[in-house]
Design a protein that fits this description.
It contains three helices and no strands. It is mostly helical. Residues 1-65 are annotated as: Disordered.
Length: 134
């Protein structure tokens, strides 16, 4: 019997549920993503491909271009991270300064209120003393 067929010569029949088997949604999406990625890679490779000069040293130009674009992406990511960190640090410093100013204002107001209370007590005591003297 030919290879892949059962020894009695029958064509192997797939199980009934496998005849109408649809690929799962995950399989479909992963296939679509893979095909899109390969198309994208092929397109970008063809865009960056330049014929190397005859007997030139080093890797072909499309490899160096791809490496350069990867490095550029890494560099851009790193600088973006630095900028983000600086902005965040500035915002935190500003918030801290505002909180400090708020705390100073509160303590100043508290001190003034205490001073006012003490002054009022002093005035009341002086009035009482003056009343007793009279």
């Amino acid at each position: 019997p030919p290879y892949g067929y059962p020894p009695h010569g029958d064509v192997p029949t797939p199980p009934a549920d496998a005849t109408h088997a649809m690929p799962s949604r995950e399989q479909v999406t992963s296939r679509a993503i893979n095909s899109a990625a390969t198309k994208n890679a092929a397109r970008s490779a063809s865009l960056t491909t330049t014929r190397p000069a005859p007997r030139s040293r080093g890797p072909p130009a499309w490899q160096t271009n791809a490496a350069a674009s990867v490095l550029q992406g890494v560099w851009r990511e790193r600088s973006d991270r630095r900028v983000r960190a600086r902005v965040q640090a500035e915002a935190e410093a500003k918030a801290q300064a505002e909180a400090q100013a708020r705390a100073q204002a509160q303590s100043r107001a508290r001190a003034e209120a205490k001073a006012a209370v003490l002054a009022a007590r002093r005035v009341a005591e002086e009035a009482k003393v003056a009343e007793e003297v009279r």
